[in-house]
TrEMBL record, chain B:
InterPro entries referenced in this protein's UniProt entry, alphabetically: CobW/HypB/UreG_nucleotide-bd, P-loop_NTPase, UreG
Gene symbol of the encoding locus: ureG
Chain's role: Facilitates the functional incorporation of the urease nickel metallocenter. This process requires GTP hydrolysis, probably effectuated by UreG.
Listed name of the protein: Urease accessory protein UreG
Keywords (A to Z) from UniProt: Chaperone, Cytoplasm, GTP-binding, Nickel insertion, Nucleotide-binding
Keyword Ribonucleoprotein among record annotations: no
Residues in CobW/HypB/UreG nucleotide-binding domain copies: 31-201
First-listed, main subcellular location of the protein, grouped into a coarse class: cytoplasm
Binding residues for GTP: 35-42
Subcellular localization(s) per the UniProt record: Cytoplasm
Amino acid sequence: MDTTEGAATTRGTAAGAASACCAVGAAGATGVTALAGGTTGAAAATGGATAGTASTAAPVAPAAPPASAVPPAPAAGAARAALLVLADGRFPAGGHAHSGGAEAAVRAGRITDAETLLGYCRGRLHTTGLTSAALAAAAAAGIDPLALDEAADARTPSPALRVTARRLGRQLLRAARAAWPDPELDALAAARPRGAHQPVVLGLTCRVAGLAPLDAAYAAAHETVGGPAGATVRLLSLDPFDATAVLARLAPELDTVARSAAGAARRAVHEGPGTLPAASGPLPDIAAERHAVRSVRLFAS
Amino acid sequence: MHLDHPGLFPPRHTHSAAPVRPDGTRRALRIGLGGPVGSGKTATVAALCRALREELSVAVVTNDIYTREDADFLLRHAVLPPERITAVETGACPHTAIRDDISANLEAVEDLEEAVGPLDLVLVESGGDNLTATFSRGLVDAQVFVIDVAGGDDIPRKGGPGVTTADLLVVNKTDLAPYVGSDLGRMARDAEAQRGELPVVFTSLTSEDGVRPVTDWVRRRLAGWAAAGER
């Protein structure tokens, strides 16, 4: 149960710095389960499976774009401070109004304390987190953002979460264009005036800010857990130190997820976006749909 | 008569607040209304809409905290057609949405201009908050802070960014002053001490045309906005 719950397909809130979330606990069992679920999802994804509508995603090997079509990514390590700016929870891109599925999980009694928050975040990290991080890394690596936007649609079965992802992508793009003015960002804004999926925008922003695909993967993975953790502090009046400890405890796993996502992005440069991970979980998708029609809620998603 | 803030509409540096829209037309004047819970922000917005809707193209963005109640109130009372009212969700942080991260509100304003424009005036109503809440200058051109006599006649003396820096301070529910023991004269003196020459008006929205002092101020702002566009 926690597995699916944590696996929210919701794209990240841009609230990197949200402090929150759970510390230890019952997480032993839930955490492991969630982890297993995530791994399974990731494995399936590498096999070419895509969740939801297959607007993109040829399940078999998609036509590989000529390598020359993808502009070279910035050298890793060329920039780093920009990552801190981008991953700061105060970065004004709308994340504060979203809980990354945490509100629905709290309402359903699936997050009740630091322990269960850890399980939720862990499941989310290995599913949505991996998928989002790979999309972001792929955009940072120079893969066509419109193709990645379709790939993100294919990996987001919940219509409510697609709306959320595009809304947050639009808000992030606004902030990014002010912070790092660049023709690539302008072109994406012109092509997707209602917004592209947030992880794609995040990756492209990293690219124009001089960051590497791995940096983009870190930023995306971090916010998929930072958002719910921060929201849970507000939702449950959870001790903010416990919530921060949860994030710290997940940090080594986040390192692994980010590296895996960056590796998937490298493959996708040659083999196409269809090979990117497509891990998700049905329960958070269903919960997101129900949350979207609630008349009383603290967070938009 | 008090003076308005000098330098009516200083230059903007954000994508969103440029006075000219991408299609070359001049965007609507944006006025924010903030203030504590229950002071009468929504009632003031409703009264403004009723007073101005015949002569101006008006739209409203509400920032509800955990419901759509403010937007629904305006819809229920039919102060504007539904397509002219949009609600923004704020994730338990109303001041964040109007000051620190204005992206959702900017999109709401722009979407309204696109959907039902051209507009003359967009009112952005904050969720009820505390005395430190102010609007970003990247979101609105001018802001109104609404307090009421029943919240305590010491609020002007306490000051805070909302009371001291808003372009207009509205002290609402003056009809209740005798019942709650609030001294309107004291409130006026304290407000002037905090705000210098910035304007303060007293309203009682239950009386006929009670919103008039605010309407008059909005009209002057609109005239200034139009004049700035002609320069």
